[in-house]
Amino acid sequence: MRRVVRFWLGDEPRDVAGAAPTTTLLDWLRGVEGRTGTKEGCNEGDCGACTVLLTRLRDGRVVHEPVCACIRLLATVDGCRVATVEDLAAADGTLHPVQRAMVEQHASQCGFCTPGIVTSLWALRLDHPEPPDEAEIEARLAGNLCRCTGYGPIVRAARAMYALEPAPAVDPLLAAAELWHTRLAERDTAEPLLLDGPDGTRLVAPVRLEELSDLLAARPDALLLAGGTDVGLRITKDLDRPPLIVWLGRVAELHRLEETAEGLRIGAAVTWREAASALRRLAPGLGELVDRFAGEQIRATATVVGNLANASPVGDGAPAFLALDARLELRRGDRRRELPLAEFFRAYRRTALEPGEFVEAVFLPRPSAGTRLLFEKVSKRREQDIATVSAGIALAIEDGRVRHVRLAFGGMAAIPARARAAEAALEGAAWDEAALERAVAALDRDFEPISDHRGSAAYRRTVAANLLWRAWLESRGVPVRLHAAEPALG
Amino acid sequence: MAEPIERIRGDLHAAIAHDSAEAHVTGRALYVDDLVEPKGCLHLALGLSERARARIVALELDTVRAAPGVVLVLTGRDPGASADISPVHAGDEPVLPTDEVVYCGQPIFVVAAETREQARRAARLARVVYEDLPAVLGIEEARTAGRGFVCEPLRLERGAVDPALATAPRRLAGRMRIGGQEHFYLEGQVALAVPGVEGEMLVWSSTQHPTETQLLVARALDLPMAAVTVRCRRLGGGFGGKETQANLFAVLAALVARRTGRPAKLRPDRDEDMIVTGKRHDFLVDYEVGFGPDGRIHAVRATLAARCGFSADLSGPVTDRALFHADNAYHYPAVRLVSEPWRTNTCSNTAFRGFGGPQGVLVAERIVEEVAFATGLDPLEVRRRNLYREGDLTPYHQPIEDVPLEAILDELERRAAYRERRRAIAAFNAESPVLKKGIALTPVKFGISFTATWYNQAGALLHVYRDGSVLLAHGGVEMGQGLFVKVAQVVAHELALDLERIRLGTTDTGKVPNTSATAASSGSDLNGMAAQAAARTLKERLAAFAAERWSVPAEQLAWLPGRLRVGNQEIAWEELVAEAYRARVQLWASGFYRTPEIHWDRKAGRGRPFYYFACGAACAEVTVDTLTGAHRIDRVDVLHDCGRSLNPAVDLGQIEGGLVQGIGWLTSEELVWDEEGRLRTHGPSTYKIPTAGDRPRVANIALFEGAPNRKPTIHRSRAVGEPPLMLATAVLHAISDAVASLAGHRICPKLDPPATPEAVLAAVERVRARAAGDPPGTGAA
Question: How many C-beta neighbours within 10 Å does residue A162 have?
Fold first, then answer.
């Protein structure tokens, strides 16, 4: 058992012992290291002021990811390199092109969000040697709030940085990829991590899957930590101090992402960012899911399985995956079982998981030819918001009849759920307005939505029905999508 | 003396970067929470009321006191802790309450502990026994309950409004709700109090109003103001949210520092910040308009009721300014406007960029829209027919001067190709059953000056040190708006020194006393003039010295960049300063400014509250999804008048940023309180300010050129902080226009902001239902 967290901070190795397992990366950076460039804006991973760049090895490759330091537990940067805004300029003080572009485009006003924005743009540049399109720039800024500039100058800076030397391909960090490969590989040990905090909390990070499952079976009270974007909030907002946290992030098997002819298997440690391309390949309709899921920092941290296992009624993944007839692979000790996702959600935030059992992976069957999958998300804000209503719709129309249909909704009940009555109204029926009207009427029987700060019950009902109408209209060739239409007239 | 011919670096009217831009992008810019904590610094956490209104029967804090690390717990019963911190001295805002809580989230005690985590943890251990009292949460409830106002209402009246309404050819009445807005400054509230020698107290505060923070700390500590210093180098955003709301945190930190003799820092978590502090006022407006078939307005009568929260705070001046702007850009031949500043059991609403003005502007634009849909005229045509002309009187009897609204509308209409696009949009909508487009072009006219006339003063202090370096201090606070760089440009210009040679000092009540809040868009106007006065005094002293020292007549002196020409020789700045020092010339100077001409008689509702007006206009095109109510902003064109801009880069930044902040207010930002008075939207996960993808797909933003301020403002510029927020009105009206297209633009959608998808979909259904019931053309009159 290793009792120190080992990582790199900038160009210096760090061995941290004795810190409470619930210490966040942000508190450690600001409080212990005095790196005050990284800011706390919300302490819930929603504003991006705390964005730092993590460099780590994934499948033997060096990858760079922007993450929110505020809800990231320090222990979970084990084996990584953490770079903050202070690491960006050259040793002689020469500004990095990202920084110069931000200055030249007048992209900072109060400056408080700026370190996070600079770091996000740095990550963008590392991912894209060539200037990306506007949509990609916006997607990569969706996790960074700015209240002063209106974002225009920041987006202009994102474009302008590509015209500044050094050329992107030789970003100092990319140029040093080999060095980082060596350094990170050296820090990587096969030893499980065990941290005991002065506040009585303990974190264990096994390396082998069996160790993990045995530990969880033996200690069903343990809090299982994956990406931590939910658990982090419990720690920063509720001041929760779980006696035992078991982090699954060091178990190699759980990082596996397998694409086969049958479908896509996503291990419990795979993040949304890692799964994004495979999801798009599985069904183009999942592109909307990937694009609308949080911001890049959260996509780089949150796991796909975690989004299901936390059983939120408004998680983005569940409706889409329900429509795909996803199956979960559950494990308790040595025992494995498979469960359709539709049977996993039992009540508000309650699942079919038995004590000591955990979700090892989710399997998404490849949709049959002719089946179209749609993901719909209605929210107050397009980017980085929680759905008021979301829907996964799988439809196969053959010879004017509905051969296969799945209608699954989020935000309509205490759990994400299929609209069985509405499905029944469509299954095998002629694909026409009359069938749609029956399905819409059935939808009212399927769900009793509630009113809350995201929307009223009446709005949820109307919108859920309208999403069915949209699928119909779109199949008739009517333009229905705001973000596919021509922008401005003239 | 001749003006410099060579230019200094960073002169006036140049697009200079923000003075802290490099510090921002490198992470070197320090905010209060970034300062190295003084030895022994305590950390504070608040205990909040869980009831909207209740008597505190018991406040059991023993477990809090006994929690690990806790050093002190203060309640309203401790000395100084129930001092009134009302900025208008209304006596309705104790630092901490003693007997009764008046809103859910009101701080009732503060814990000081060795670490922030210990303090936060301890604060949750309190047990409070409440006895509920009847609470009033909303405006209508307050009316029904007869709860009373937080201050005297204002009434503005001109002309015989009742007869004019009675005799107008057409007349309609309506009601409008306007949502509030959370500031969401990225840097939350924070204060660090450090006890000093001889009982002095130093407070680093993220405040827009250091002098008021100083005054209130002094009162709570029973110290003279002279013994309290408040400092602030920069704010991570303010927007009005730190004009008065910072005081609570500063006073609590100072109280703990005083009691313990240790430094004390209070930085609430984001949720607490949002729950505790006031926001933009939400309004309920009832309006009546009389008009002709030609769309000309004959008379307007309106009541603007606001939810002010538990205390007066700045609600008086905010609701006043709402009335001052309920005409926006339009002449009402007869008018009566009345404010109703209701007291409610919610957080105390406060200043927010525009200060009531934006809500007033929305009322005017709703009235225009109603008239347009009732008459079948294009709303832009109605706007033009009612536009103010030079010499017209406002509802507060100030004559309209130097308001180039017509020229701005002409140019923007052309630039935005409004008419062509309106036709193209009609064609698009005819072919598109689900997606509907809309367009709107709306003006903004905003009065510049604090309506509290005495606030319109400023001071500056300019030090020249023996080595020639220059330190500039003034009373203004830098919160991202570019005030410091603008004022530095003014001084650099006067002293003929490159901009980087002017060091910008921390705003400090020990350097410049009795300053006004940095607010009301007035920062550059006031502090720029004061700094200019100080620089001129210094310059005159140096010139007089040089004339004597080198025996040349004054007319043979000329300031050149970095040097003074004295007859045929040139004296470098450093040499001049060194010589002047040895000759015992005073090398520091102060400057003072007060805005001329303004006066305001609130009782009579008459006067000249504004020195001048700042104007602009925006044209927005949007697409609305009529299945979900979501929208996309396709294009916005803006033309805004900054007079002779001191710094076009800074001004354009204010315009673009203000526009998007206004768009957030009017579209996605929705505050929700539940029936118990708890705020349900208290973090960025539930309260949605715009992201990069929400900004307009195309934004053409330009300064209206060639219109220097007619008033002798600082280098003929115009204030820019607040007015651009109201450019966002065009977006709300474009969405409304898209919805109205469903019924041939003859039914007013009455789309109340925020235009969330839910609100838009409701408007869509309303318009469709009315169109189905009433044949088009008969519905709106």
Answer: 16
Polymer length in residues for chain A: 490
Q: Give the separation between CA B486 and CA B661, rounded to whole angstroms.
A: 22
| Residue of A110, A161, A164, A312 for testing the chain B interface, max B β-carbons within 10 Å | A110
A482 interaction partners in chain B (CB closer than 8 Å): 435, 623, 625, 630-632
CATH classification number, A252-365, choose in 3.30.200.20, 3.90.180.10, 3.30.465.10, 3.40.50.1580: 3.30.465.10
User: Which residues of B are identified as catalytic?
Assistant: 722
Q: Does B5 touch chain A (CB under 8 A)?
A: no
- A238 C-beta neighbours (distance < 10 Å), count: 9
Q: How far apart are CA A395 and CA A371, in angstroms?
A: 5
Alpha helices per DSSP H over A13-92 = 25-27
Can you tell me whether residue A158 is helix, strand or coil? helix
- Topology annotation, domain A193-247: 3.30.43
Query: What count of CB pairs under 8 Å joins A to B?
Result: 280
Q: What pTM was estimated for this model as a whole? A: 0.97
Q: Which residues contact B231 (CB under 8 A, 6 or more apart)?
A: B202, B203, B204, B205, B210, B506, B507, B508, B509, B510
Q: CB B27 to CB A386 under 8 A?
A: no
ipTM of the complex: 0.97
Triad B518, B523, B527: Cα angle to 5°? 110
B219 touching A (Cβ < 8 Å): no
Instruction: Decide if domain B457-594 falls under CATH 3.30.365.10.
Output: yes
Topology adopted by domain A1-188 = Ubiquitin-like (UB roll) (3.10.20)
Contact criterion met (CB < 8 Å) for A109 and B437: no
Q: Rounded to a whole number, what is the distance in Å from the CA of A338 to chain B's nearest CA?
A: 33
Tokens at A303, concatenated: 């796991």
Provide the 3-class DSSP secondary structure of residue B467: coil
CATH architecture, domain defined by B401-450+611-781: 2-Layer Sandwich (3.30)
| B125 interfaces chain A, CB cutoff of 8 Å | no
Write out pLDDT tens, residues A86-134.
999 999 999 999 999 999 999 999 999 999 999 999 999 999 989 999 9
**Pick from A368, A397, A391: nearest CA to A472:** A397
- Domain ranges, ordered by start, for chain B: 401-450+611-781, 457-594
SS3 B100: strand
Q: Please tell me the CATH superfamily of domain A371-475, with its number.
A: CO dehydrogenase flavoprotein, C-terminal domain (3.30.390.50)
Nearest CA in chain A to B415: A490
d(CA A205, CA A194): 6
Helix axes B757-773, B729-740, angle to 10 degrees: 40
Burial of A343 (0-12, 13-18, 19+ CB in 10 A): exposed
10-residue mean pLDDT profile of chain B (781 residues): values are 72 96 98 98 98 98 98 98 97 97 98 98 98 98 94 98 98 98 98 97 98 98 98 98 98 98 98 98 98 98 98 98 98 98 98 98 98 97 98 98 97 98 98 98 97 94 97 97 98 97 96 96 96 98 97 96 96 98 98 97 97 98 98 98 97 98 98 98 98 97 94 97 98 98 96 98 97 59 33
List Cβ neighbours of B395 (8 Å cut-off, separation of 6 or more): B156, B157, B158, B323, B324, B326, B327, B332, B335, B337, B605
The whole-angstrom distance between B426's CA and the closest CA on chain A is 11
Beta strands in A327-400 (DSSP E): 327-332, 335-340, 345-347, 350-351, 358-365, 371-378, 389-398
A48 Cα to chain B: minimum distance (Å): 10
Residues A449 and A413: their CA atoms lie apart, in Å, by 5
Determine whether the interchain pair B23/A106 forms a contact, defined as Cβ–Cβ distance below 8 Å.
Answer: no
DSSP 3-state of B410: helix
